[in-house]
Amino acid sequence: MSASNLLIVLVIFISLFGMSNAQLNSTFYANSCPNISGIVRGVIQEALRSDPRIGASLIRLHFHDCFVDGCDGSLLLDNSSSIRTEKDAGPNIASVRGFDVVDNIKTAAENACRGVVSCADILAIAAEASVFGGRSWNVLLGRRDSRTANFAGANTFLPSATEGLTNITAKFAALNLSVTDLVALSGAHTFGRAQCFTFINRLYNFRGTGNPDPTLNSSYLATLRQICPQNGNGSIVTNLDLTTPDTFDSNYFTNLQSNQGLLQSDQELFSTNGSLTVPIGCDGSLLLDNSNSIQSEKNAGPNVNSTRGFNVVDTIKTTLENACPGVVSCADILAIAAEASVSLAGGPSWNVLLGRRDSTTANQAGANTLIPSPFEGLTNITAKFSAVGLNTNDLVALSGAHTFGRAQCRTFSNRLFNFSGTGNPDQTLASSYLATLRQTCPQNGSGSTLANLDLTTPNNFDNNYFSNLQNNQGLLQSDQELFSTTGAATIVIVNNFVNNQTAFFQSFAQSMINMGNISPLTGSSGEIRSDCKKVNGS
Ligand code: HEM
């Protein structure tokens, strides 16, 4: 093992462990189950005798577990009356494997020390043992197992080999994993197998061109076409690393240099033109329209037919360009406009920090992935805030912006008639409010009809939004869950804001500053756009 390989692997595991909470430590089972690492290693060694691929399969389980709501063993739960298993989600079904070995490890662990070692920790130890035989770094331990699975999350958060580097980078960034993490972790494709259906898009008709992927070495292409003929069996497997398929080494990266990466997502790490930046942060990227080089964020799911006010931003920009041309960025205009809008509606005012510059790219995939949806649940939404450095207090305070404005029926009608397939409305919805909302948004009515986000004072910036939550009159599921999720840390914050509008105003101002600080472009990064809709010179 060379020093550079070791470095790669350390980055991999520091990355994965970084997604868990800070209380993990390597001696967690020192007293309660001192031989756990030996137990895991023994079962894997036995399995490797008949299945040289099993180590690769096990490390992949850890990855697919960690990327969905953290490393909590949720991937291992089977279907039941309360669980929709993640195993059946698109990226997992007929693909992830090794569950029988995990079960064997669990049985051996339970025999040695009953009720002590979590399934989530077993995956972490098994991942390390699979890479090096279990002697390469101290695995941080102490995870507990989830009591729920997140089928939808597995479909959303796990990367697909064909979705493109920007999207995949955004999915990693959403979990605070950097581009280096992405490249290092992809290095796990130095062993294991992939099925034809995961890369056949590259062999015959890449992106509808009628030709193979031009970044595929021609002799490698010929080999792969023999293994995966057109209309052949999509489940045939081949080696992810054509040179040393069962060894954990750096040949994966050498393969990329010679255009012999197997998956599109592998080869793109090397063959994508230009430096890879993650366009996230307050950079005015939302304001860019479609062009040859821009896929507008305005067309991303959370924005299309929903975000508005662009014409007012354009008017502000024109006025500013007349007053002081080429000076004020579009990103700063949004920050100033946000403060002005809140204070004009009776809310707090604050000193807006300025000096942002504008991006020269948009990130439509990021907009689809990183912006919270009203339906996705408090855990997910909290994770999305924390991925950009915002805590639970920020989440509650900033949600208080729903004290004014409107929402379309389609953003909350899921709560009115058949909530989560129960055939009944959301039980956390006050019955008279439910009746009103059903009138505004009848079943099969127009999804674009508007309702006030704050039913009491719809145009004022005050703390009534929070009193509404206490009365079960939050409009969106994501609003009401701040108060109605049993045991959630958000409840006490909501209660505080109801009792103390000043505390809400102070928190809101501070959280707006925190949000405005997300990855600004400064110095010579980016540009000052002269038209917020277009990159300069385009
Ligand atoms: C960067 C985004 C990634 C994408 C798009 C991706 C996609 C895939 C796909 C499509 C397969 C083949 C599955 C099949 O044919 O059934 C695969 C296999 C594998 N992946 Fe990834 N993967 C990614 C990152 C990772 C990471 C971060 C790890 C672990 C740290 C990992 C570990 C593995 C391993 C070891 C295999 C082989 C498993 C086996 O042989 O059973 N992958 N991956």
Automatic annotation (TrEMBL):
GO terms for molecular function: heme binding; lactoperoxidase activity; metal ion binding. This is Plant heme peroxidase family profile domain-containing protein. It catalyses: 2 a phenolic donor + H2O2 = 2 a phenolic radical donor + 2 H2O. Residues 23-536 form the Plant heme peroxidase family profile domain. Ca(2+) 2 binds at residues 190, 241, 244, 249. Ca(2+) 1 binds at residues 65, 68, 70, 72, 74, 86. Keywords: Calcium, Disulfide bond, Heme, Iron, Metal-binding, Oxidoreductase, Peroxidase, Signal. The record marks 60 as: Transition state stabilizer. InterPro entries: Haem_peroxidase (IPR002016), Haem_peroxidase_sf (IPR010255), Peroxidase_pln (IPR000823), Peroxidases_AS (IPR019794), Peroxidases_heam-ligand_BS (IPR019793), Secretory_peroxidase (IPR033905). Binds 2 calcium ions per subunit. Binds 1 heme b (iron(II)-protoporphyrin IX) group per subunit. It comes from the Eukaryota. Substrate binds at residue 159. Its cofactor is Ca(2+); heme b. One of its GO terms (biological process) is response to oxidative stress. It comes from Coptis chinensis. Disulfide bonds join 33-113, 66-71, 196-228. Heme b binds at residue 189.
